[in-house]
Amino acid sequence: MKKILLAILLSLSAFATDSVVKLNITGMTCPMCVKSVKNAIIGVKGVKNAKIYLKDGKADVLCDEHTKTSDILDAIKQEGFGAEVIK
Length: 87
Description:
By secondary structure, this protein is an alpha+beta fold. The protein has helices at about 1-15, 30-40, 70-80; strands spanning about 20-25, 45-55, 60-65, 80-85.
């Protein structure tokens, strides 16, 4: 019975949708800044991956459907950087 329930739960999780949040990030000047921003983003519940682009001052964040964009922005701002969603 437990195996059946586990199989059902795993199949349902396949229907969860991920989304990509695109951000403008200000204040990054070096690779250590990128590392700080990435670590802050990855630490947010529901974030699966983040790509940070120093030259462009942008980030692409892969997260699940329950992740709050405001939590991502707050995490970046707590590290001392500016951030806003690209619409």
